[in-house]
Each structure stands twice: as structure tokens, then as C-alpha cells.
Design brief:
single chain, alpha+beta, D-amino Acid Aminotransferase, Chain A, domain 1, 2 domains, six-stranded antiparallel β-sheet, four-stranded antiparallel β-sheet, 34% helix, ATPgrasp_TupA, transferase, transferase activity, Glycosyltransferase
Length: 289
């Protein structure tokens, strides 16, 4: 067996020196030092949240447990139908699944498999993938320590596909609250698994420059059309996010219905670099300390 020394170092740091590791990786990513005492930028506040996390963040980052919260706050009609929740994938569970579905690990991000036609997969192939997910200590990748307290499991949901056979656009709504003043910024992601595109809008659906390095905007009518139910999207975002000073709430709009995706408290682990530090500071000021 080959040891992954970088992962081993992260595991040790997560126990004895998480603050030191977060500060070191922050300086490497952003080319300025993290100020733990007086954070000003969005990036700083995300980094500090990775260290000063809460139990509630752990519960609501669990893709299985968060559904109870969504059902209570906005209603079951916003949930993607669940086919199964599993500790591990078994032959019996696999056989009982429909011909199309999406299977995800509950304890991290980008741990998912889209199955458009189950006949194209064997049980052993899917089990090998999901077993690897379940062994993964996801929290170590970005030192997002609130993920450490999620018991790994699997959730299988209905696969939402548009007329082109693609996953519908993903609306990632950033919710900021400062002394009762609420602001929204929306990322729109399209064709995430093929020709990825991303645009950025303020709460009034005015197009603004994408603030992050490496995520360029696109002049595309399909991307820039305001969703018919955008006001409702903001309303349900507020109802889900209200207990927090900042959180990102993800949704899909499919067949004129809104479906909840996930709550994200530390997007990308705070590693995305801003094109302009002024935007990093502006978003940081929207988030009450």
C-alpha cells in the first residue's frame, strides 16, 4: 500500500494544528495573510469558519439530514425525490433502483454518479466507486472540519434531466446578512459535466462580472434569462438561510418547479481567488462578524 503523505500530514494537522494549517494554506492561495482577529474579506471569513464551525453546520452539510431541515422550513415539495439512503451499496439495493438515478455520498462535494441507464453499469462497478467515496476523509481536502462529524453514507435520488438529456442549470444563491440587511448574489452554472459555463448576478438579476479567477462569464441568452420563479427562489433562500449570517443555497429549476440542492457554508473551502481584492472586501463587509 502506498502512503499518501500529504493526506497524512493533513490528518495530523486537523487534530493538533488546524488553525496553523488553515493560515498557511490561505496565504498560499490568496497571497496575503489571514487575519484571525479582524477578518475583512470574504475569503478570510470563509477560512475562519472552517476552524470555528458549529454542530449545526455539520448537520446541515449532511446531504441526508438536511432534507428534514428543508421539509420543516419550506416544505417537502422542494425536495428531489429520494429513492434510498444507504450505509453502503448492496446488490439488493442496486437491483431495486430504477433505470436512471443519481447516487451521492452525503459527507462531501463532487462525490456523485449520474446514471442515465442502469443497464450500462454493473453492480460491482458502482459499488467500487461508492466504497471509495465512503473511505474518503473529505474534510481533509480543504480542512473543512465541519464535514468531519458527518457519518459517511449514500443517498440515491431521482435524476433530473432536461430535454437535451443534461442536468438542469444550478442556481447557487449566496445569502449575506449584516445587522438585518440582507443581500443576495446568484451564480448560474450550466452544463457542469460537459461545456461548463458560469455567470454571476446581483439580487435584482443584474449581470455583474464573475469575481473569481478561472470562472469566466459567458454572453449566452440561455444563461442570462431571469428564471420565471426567481422571486420565489429568493424567498425560499431567505427562509432556509435566515439563521445564518452567510450561507450559499443551491437550487435547480426543472419543469417550472424549484428543487433544493444543498447548503454550503464554506464554498470551495475558500480557495477561489478573487480577480480584484476590492470585491473580496465588499462581499466580506456584507457578512456581519
Amino acid at each position: 500500500m502506498v502512503l499518501d503523505y500529504s493526506l497524512l500530514i493533513k490528518q495530523i494537522c486537523s487534530v493538533i494544528a488546524p488553525k496553523w494549517y488553515i493560515k498557511k494554506s490561505f496565504a498560499s492561495n490568496h497571497s496575503y495573510n489571514l487575519n484571525f482577529k479582524r477578518p475583512r474579506t470574504f475569503s478570510e471569513k470563509i477560512a475562519i469558519r472552517k476552524f470555528r464551525y458549529t454542530r449545526e453546520m455539520s448537520v446541515l452539510s449532511d446531504k441526508i439530514k438536511v432534507k428534514d431541515y428543508v421539509k420543516e422550513r419550506i416544505g417537502e415539495e422542494y425536495l428531489v425525490p429520494t429513492y434510498a439512503t444507504l450505509d453502503r451499496l448492496t446488490q439488493k439495493a442496486f437491483d431495486e433502483l430504477p433505470q436512471s438515478f443519481v447516487i451521492k455520498a452525503n459527507h462531501g462535494s463532487r462525490l456523485n454518479l449520474i446514471v442515465k441507464d442502469k443497464s450500462q453499469y454493473t453492480f460491482k462497478e458502482v459499488k467500487k466507486i461508492t466504497d471509495k467515496w465512503l473511505r474518503k476523509k473529505y474534510y481533509l481536502i480543504g480542512m473543512e472540519l465541519h464535514y468531519r462529524h458527518i457519518k459517511p453514507g449514500l443517498i440515491v435520488e431521482e435524476l433530473l434531466l432536461n430535454e437535451q438529456g443534461e442536468v438542469p442549470k444550478d442556481y447557487k444563491i449566496h445569502y449575506f446578512k449584516n445587522k438585518g440587511d440582507v443581500k443576495y448574489f446568484t451564480e448560474v452554472h450550466a452544463d457542469r459535466f460537459s461545456n461548463f459555463r458560469c455567470n454571476f448576478y446581483d439580487g435584482g438579476w443584474n449581470r455583474i462580472n464573475n469575481p473569481w479567477v478561472g470562472e469566466e462569464e459567458f454572453d449566452d441568452e440561455n444563461m442570462s434569462t431571469r428564471p420565471d420563479r426567481y422571486d420565489e427562489l429568493l424567498d425560499v433562500t431567505k427562509r432556509l438561510a435566515e439563521p445564518f449570517k452567510y450561507v450559499r443555497v443551491d437550487f435547480y429549476v426543472f419543469n417550472n418547479r424549484i428543487y433544493f440542492g444543498e447548503l454550503t457554508f464554506t464554498p470551495t473551502g475558500g480557495t477561489l481567488r478573487f480577480k480584484k481584492k476590492t470585491m473580496d472586501e465588499y462581499l466580506g463587509n456584507l457578512w456581519e462578524d
